[in-house]
Amino acid sequence: MKPIQMVDLAGQYARIKPEVDAALAEVMRHTGFINGPEVKAFEQELAAYLGVKHVIGCANGTDALQIAMMALGLKPGDEVITASFTFVATVEVVALLGITPVFADVLPGTFNLDPADIERKITPRTKAIVPVHLFGQTADMEAIMAIAAKHKLYVIEDDAQAIGGTYTFSDGTRKKSGTIGHIASTSFFPSKNLGCYGDGGALFTDDDDLAKRVRRVCNHGSETRYYHEVVGVNSRLDSLQAAVLRVKLKQLDGYAAARNAAAASYDKAFAGIPELMTPARSAQSDHVFHQYTLRVKGGHRDALKKHLEANGVPAMIYYPVPCHLQNAYRSDRFPAGSLPVTEQLTHEVLSLPMSTELDPEQLAHITATVKGYFNP
To answer: Which domains does the chain possess?
Structure first.
């Protein structure tokens, strides 16, 4: 059996090596390393795939979130509602801009923002909501957009973990994750479902004026070289990474299908284990399984993790400490106990290997090892 990894990037590369190598060689040939033709082509191809008017590449997913907030004109003193059960980047950029992060709790099944708690957290200073489409499943965007419309708020989708997923509205309308709010950000970190071979990110929007502002912020606040209309940043998706992403974009739906097949194997294997709660599936959103995350009940999570690792199965805890309890973001407004679902999840969640390259032998070993812990 091949060694099991959380994400098998080497195995994935082997399958697409000829195309990737040729794409990289073409960039080396023309040497247009910054804003080369691959960047524009990738932006156009991803926009067509998502069904959105504008895709703007940038240096990474954290930059993408920051640029979205800058382009929307959010200022110190404004409040942004988001999840505490997320990677810190979502909150980090809010704080860096002098904006106040306001934490809403998440739903215990999907781990995504609870719309009812969002509404409870709105104040006169609230300017935006940042739903994080966690682990590969889109948040309840119909409810979130209705709340935003009612209170005249922006919605910035954090789509770093759910790119390629589809959300279905109550009227049957279907939209890709990241194309529902006013603007969305994503990351192309190598382990993402659509990942490059370094850092990369992008923003999506249907708003022509907002897209123009985003491009200006990305380019030092400038539309014309050496003339700077606003304070900006230097954040670009380079041509080598765009070349890789063009190849991998063609594989994205196949990658999601492979991940769903692995998830189905896990679901079936764990169905009879009362201590395990397999990932809930939203009625509105499909799942692209950036992570396959169990809830492990009865205090078994940490011991199960050790058992897996002792038997050659990596496992990860996303996320052991929620943002509102991190030293950098603690406040009297959100003491321990203020987000009960979030805090419970941090003691229960455990993510198993999830990769496009998982084979039947590896899946059998992973599931047998999990089951062996509960039935030695």
So the answer is: 9-249 (3.40.640.10), 252-374 (3.90.1150.10)
